[in-house]
Amino acid sequence: MQKIISYPLSVLAYVLFFLVLCIFHPVQYVCFNLFGYKAHKKSVDVLNYCLLRILWATFSTAKIEMKAELPEGKPLIFVANHQGLYDIIGMGWFLRKYHPKYVSKVELGKGIPSVSYNLNHGGSVLIDRKDPKQALPALKKMAEYIEANNRSTVIFPEGTRSKNGKPRSFASNGLKILCKYAPNALVVPVSINDSWKVFRYGNFPLGVGNHLTFTVHAPIEIKGTDFNTLFEQAENAVVGDIRY
After folding, report:
1. Residue 50: which pLDDT band, with cuts at 50, 70 and 90?
2. Tag placement on the chain: N or C end, fewer CB within 10 Å?
3. Residue 49: other Cβ atoms inside 10 A
4. Which of 93, 3, 101, 100 is nearest to 54 (CA)?
């Protein structure tokens, strides 16, 4: 019955999603080219808010749970599990005051209204997952960017999303590079729950009645912490709060 109900609701959600992307593409262009980074950042914040609220069309919600206060004006590396598209939208809105940037696959940098423009002009970096050598300088560039500007980046060490909520093994290489070139940053574990349920049936129809949560844990100092210890602490914090 729930799946049957989700069909008309999913059509509505997809129409709204596409309209929002199309509307905010020129808005981003105007903000970036006429008013600069701050205006563009505000437009992306509102974009993420609107996309997140489209969850209401499927009777779903999203919230953030802060287990610790995070300092502003300091580079941050958010380390999270990956369950789906709404991971990025949710973190983009809930953590907006920390200016989150993304290490994204190169395919998303072309042809997607609003999304591609933001990835190319908002401070994120694009990597080709088929070319590991290309990823290293991209990650270094991201680390140096957040270090110089006291902003944040988001990394999903699983590499690909979980389709049932169960976390995959974390890979350490990406985080290790970020820590090396952003030594003043804090590593902040984030546990994401029930984002996968939005696409539990695939791309269509959407799941209904879901309650997404983003749990932000206490930050870990890079300086003075052995990387292997830091990586283990971050992974344990993320995985320990995932419900599956």
Report:
1. very high
2. N
3. 15
4. 93
